[in-house]
Amino acid sequence: MTQPKIVIQNASFGYNDQHLVWENINIQVNERDCLCLLGPNGSGKTTLLNCMNGTFPLKNGTILINGKNIKSYSIGEMAKTIGIVYQEHSAPFPYSSLEVVRMGRTPYLGMFETPSKEDTELAYSIMQDLGIGHLAAKSYTQISGGERQLVLIARTLCQEPEIILFDEPTSHLDFKNQAMVLRTIKRLSNNGMTIVMTSHFPNHVWKIGTHVAMLGFNGMVMQGTVDEVMTEKYLTETYKVEVKIYETETDKAKLRYCEPIFE
Amino acid sequence: MALKKKMESEVIEKRISAWQWLLMAIIPLSLLFLSLFLGRYVIPPKQVFQILGNKLLGFHFIPTWTSSAETVILQVRLPRAIMAALVGAGLSMSGSAFQGMFQNPLVSPFILGVSAGASFGAAVGLVLELPVLAVQGLAFLFGILAVGIAYFLAHIYKATPILMLVLSGMVVSAFFQAMLSLIKFIADDEEKLPAITFWLMGSLGSIKVKDLAIAVVPISISMAILFLLRWKLNVLSMGDRESRSLGVNNELIKAVIIITTTVITSVAVAFSGIIGWVGQVIPHFCRMIVGPDHRVLIPATMLVGAAYLILIDNFCRLLTANEIPLGILTAVVGAPVFAYLLRKTKGGWN
After folding, report:
1. Where are the beta strands (DSSP E) in chain B?
2. Taking CB atoms and an 8 Å cutoff, what residues of chain B touch A155?
């Protein structure tokens, strides 16, 4: 049994002393897991993600990354271990996409160092690998939202992390771009990357998730494998609206999806 | 395959060629040289060459010139032109560093209140009729003080968010401008008020060798540090959240950038008064030529900024019999150019 990648124990967090966003959270993420965090708006999914890479300190409890307390990680060490793709990002300057991807090498550079030729090559080969080599010269501010998301994923891969966190990677994207991003995440997961991702789309869990954690208000509703957790009961409980699960078959595979039921 | 990939990634990178760098370096140097020949006091070019040859290269031309010609070239024009280069390079580099850090291509290096603080300091010195060195010292100290206050006002929750920095910079500037007005109000309007007013307009007219000797060390060291941090400016400009996730110690880098730019701007302001629009226009202009990558942009702004201020200062000396204050010309030239660049780049977002 290998060591779990992320262990969250009795964690609670609040932006102020009066109100906790969530408390007593316990989550374990093993190597190669793709954990999806579901939950309604305001349940603190993104906050939890930000605690996992040490951006926000917990109020109580501990987070262990590779068995080591998150508090003893330096900012640079953390960036080599965990990469994060935030949900929406725009740059004030029209850097080329290659430039943005190359920024992923920053944790490996000293304070006064600039990236080497090897760094550039690595960045470019990662872009080609993700099928976005043609974007390299294009300005990061002028590509589509989905392409930008892929560029950010390439940048994160450039950090050579062991874990990647995704904060709602498909929000604001149309179907084609959603598919493009999800396919990429799925591929990373199949290649052995440990992934935690928040999502507003329960349907995406069936497409790429291995495990699910559902956050209700002030705490966890349920966590486990996809089949254990993705039930009408728990979905209804989490979202406070009746949810039905349907099954259908395409010529390739069985497909499951859910819909909220309302008038 | 590996070879092919390498070539592709190199083709994609738009590089500034050695020739372009050479050109960018030759322009300020030749302007500096040229400005030794220009001025109201007419010295034949041949004599200028001979004076320079004797003093700098160790030739032994027989002097056919007056000693005042020698003084004009070596004690007045040379230090003045070098100071113009230093101040122009420093303000432009500070401007582009701040624009990167504040994630906004329109920011000026005076955004944290350094010019307001320094103006107040200088005005106090002028009203008290202190010696020149003390006036410069006060301007420098109050410039640093203003930025220091802005920085600590902006420091919340162990961080200094960009928005807080901008706002506290505004507050500090407003305060010191009010204090400056107060000083002007109580100053004697025969001598001291005009002195303050002239100082605020900015000028390199009274720069001496010893001023240069004081200014060159802190400005050069600070510029060197900014140059070394140029890659971090790219990462920092992506936003605090992003750069932290990329392993950058934001607070440390921001503090270093603020300290170095403040040293540059306060020294520049202390010796030359308020020279506006250089630190805004030059980085914007350079970004149009060499692109947004700070690895290239920072050295480019340094060279172009130096050339620009030498050029403008020469116009100040030559246009009218009574020198036009430098700060007026940089604004007269800078504001319309900036407006043009704004229209052309539509705010610089593309």
Report:
1. none
2. 246
Structural domain contains residue B256: yes
> DSSP H helical segments within chain A, as ranges?
45-52, 75-81, 97-102, 117-129, 145-158, 175-190, 202-208, 226-229, 232-239
Token pair 């390439």 in the structure block, residue? A154
pLDDT digits (tens, 9 = 90+) for B29-77: 999 999 999 988 889 999 999 999 998 888 888 888 899 999 999 999 9
Residue B31 lies in a domain: no
> What is the tally of structural domains in chain B?
1
Mean pLDDT of A228-246: 91
B chain contacts of residue A114, beta-carbon cutoff 8 Å: 230-231, 295
Give residue B273's domain range: 67-345
Q: Look at residue A101 in the predicted model and tell me its pLDDT.
A: 96
pTM: 0.93
Is B241 close to A76, i.e. CB distance below 8 A?
A: no
Of B8, B232, B244, which is closest to A124 when you measure between CB atoms? B8
Instruction: Please report the domains of chain A, with CATH numbers, ordered by start residue.
Output: 6-260 (3.40.50.300)
* Residue B312 CB neighbour total at 10 angstroms: 22
CB–CB of A232/A244 below 8 Å? yes
ipTM of this complex: 0.92
Backbone angles phi, psi at A20, to 5 degrees: -95, 135
Check if the beta carbon of residue A204 is closer than 8 Å to that of residue A182: yes
pLDDT at B348 over 70: no
Q: Which of B6, B8, B292 sits opposite A94 (nearest CB)?
A: B292
Strand partners, A7: A28, A64
Q: What's the count of helices (H) and strands (E) in chain A, helices before strands?
A: 9, 12
CB pairs under 8 A between A and B: 104
